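@channel sequence for tomorrow's demo:
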Amino acid sequence: MAHVVTQPCVGCRYTDCVVVCPVECFYEGEKMLYIHPDECIDCEACVAECPVEAIFHEDNVPDEWKNYTEMNAEMASQCKVITEKKKPLADS
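structure tokens (generated this afternoon):
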């Protein structure tokens, strides 16, 4: 099982969640972060750290954001891993 970054992260890309991840499974996209589903250990540390409540367990992703589950898997393999806190995007 894994966690999924969803729509509220688009355009803000806070990285508070990244620094608490014990396995470095976050990947930085142009407009949002992604969680690699094969690397996530389901520890839930990131959930409480997300200021926009964008991270859900894959079984609890709201219906309107279900497509983000596949998107995280696809995009994480195309993006660079992120392990340190960075400034959020300008429009956040």
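heads up for whoever presents: The mean pLDDT is 95.
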